[in-house]
UniProtKB/TrEMBL annotation:
InterPro entries with a match to the protein in the record: DUF3667
Keywords associated with the record: Membrane, Transmembrane, Transmembrane helix
Protein name (Swiss-Prot/TrEMBL): DUF3667 domain-containing protein
DNA damage among keywords: no
Taxonomy, superkingdom: Bacteria
Annotated TM spans: 82-104, 271-291, 303-328, 340-358, 370-395
Pfam family name, one: DUF3667
The keyword Transferase belongs to this UniProt entry's keyword annotation: no
């Protein structure tokens, strides 16, 4: 005899099937209406959040500490209490890149605020000159060295700062000339010993610079015969934008240089997540090729790749947080520096050990074959990842 339930005689409002529970066995729609009082919606929200938190508690510790455990649980059909592999990888990927982006921004900001010349500019040669001729020669050498440092990017100063340095050098030279009983150099002849250097130190363009920059801005368009015209046009635009960003960083004023750097950093971190989503199926292809005789489906290798990358993103997240915490704590508690450094070293060593143990546990081969395949897969993936990062850097520079 059929047991009586509270759902007897009720039909699904979506497909009309006879209800046998809270959810329709035919289409999956709930019997409960979405038009509920506000307190019911809050109760369901809290229940959903607590359910997700419960899955996080069951997912993150084994992901970090038990190589291959989540993958074997997934293969064994025990999946409800854990976060799905793709969702887990996706969330950790976004979180890790977000924090790394913040860390890189802070480093770039500190570097711009505390910029200093990598090549020291001093007046020692001028002050120790014994004759007026040696003073003029020392001034010329100092101005030439200042210009060379600026051209090679070894002088982290703005154009105004560089002009101030050149003015100080000339003032030192005049003081030394007066001390030696010689007449100081007039203003018109101060720039004569190194006219080209003086002009460039002040940030002005040399003769022909405008033509040179115009030629750089009008670089030849990309013409690859087997590519469509729209692709060639896009590559040309990316190349010219890359040149403009690079010139702004190397030769622009501080504000333009900082803006170009920030634009390129944002561009790199904007394309990294999509590129990593492409790398994951490629990593699964590598596993499929190296374990072709294990008779496993590609989807199984993809699950391994998702859990491997989820671990790596969690590892990057923890490394970034630990480095930021150590940097913040160091001025307040210096004694914590050594244990935190050791913890960072342990985390760094744990990543390859974890991936090796995971590969051994999932594919169940002997240690010699596992080590060989781990090295080969890692070597191939390293070059794929290097190419992907170069593409991300190029796209970021063209942002």
């Amino acid at each position: 005899m059929k047991p009586l339930t509270s759902y007897d005689g009720l039909h699904c409002t979506n497909c009309g099937a006879l209800m046998q529970g809270e959810f329709c066995h035919h289409c999956g729609q709930s019997i409960h209406s979405v038009l509920q009082p506000m307190h019911h919606m809050l109760e369901e929200t809290v229940e959903t959040v607590l359910h997700i938190d419960g899955r996080i508690v069951h997912t993150l510790p084994p992901l970090l500490l038990k190589p291959g455990f989540l993958t074997m649980e997934y293969f064994g059909g025990r999946r409800v209490r854990y976060i799905a592999p793709f969702r887990l990888m996706f969330v950790l990927c976004l979180l890790s890149f977000f924090l790394i982006h913040l860390a890189v921004d802070q480093i770039a900001t500190r570097a711009s605020k505390h910029s200093h010349p990598l090549v020291p500019v001093t007046s020692g040669m001028i002050e120790h000159a014994a004759t007026p001729a040696e003073v003029r020669k020392a001034l010329q050498e100092e101005l030439s060295g200042l210009q060379s440092a600026r051209d090679t990017g070894l002088l982290a100063r703005s154009a105004l700062d560089q002009a101030d340095v050149a003015g100080e050098l000339r003032q030192k030279a005049n003081q030394r000339l007066i001390a030696l009983g010689a007449a100081p150099m007039p203003a018109t002849s101060l720039a004569a010993p190194a006219a080209a250097a003086t002009v460039n130190v002040a940030g002005d363009a040399k003769p022909g610079d405008a033509l040179h920059k115009a030629a750089e801005g009008e670089s030849k368009p990309v013409q690859i015969g087997w590519l469509p015209d729209v692709v060639n046009a896009r590559l040309t635009a990316l190349g010219r934008q890359m040149q403009r960003n690079w010139r702004a960083v190397k030769h622009g004023d501080p504000a333009a240089s900082a803006e170009a750097k920030q634009r390129m950093i944002n561009g790199v971190f904007g394309v990294l997540p999509p590129i990593m989503f492409v790398m994951i199926p490629l990593f699964a292809v590598l596993l499929k090729l190296f374990y072709i005789f294990r008779r496993r489906l590609y989807m199984e290798h993809l699950i391994v790749a998702l859990h491997s990358h989820a671990f790596l993103f969690l590892w990057l997240l923890l490394c970034t947080l630990l480095a930021a915490f150590a940097h913040w704590l160091e001025p307040h508690a210096l004694w914590t520096t050594s244990p935190l450094n050791w913890l960072e070293r342990i985390l760094v060593l744990w990543a390859p050990i974890y991936l090796l143990l995971m590969q051994k546990r999932v594919y169940r081969q002997g240690w010699p074959m596992t080590l060989l395949k781990f090295w080969l897969v890692g070597w191939c993936y390293f070059w794929l990842l290097a190419i992907a990062l170069m593409v991300a850097a190029a796209l970021g520079m063209a942002n």
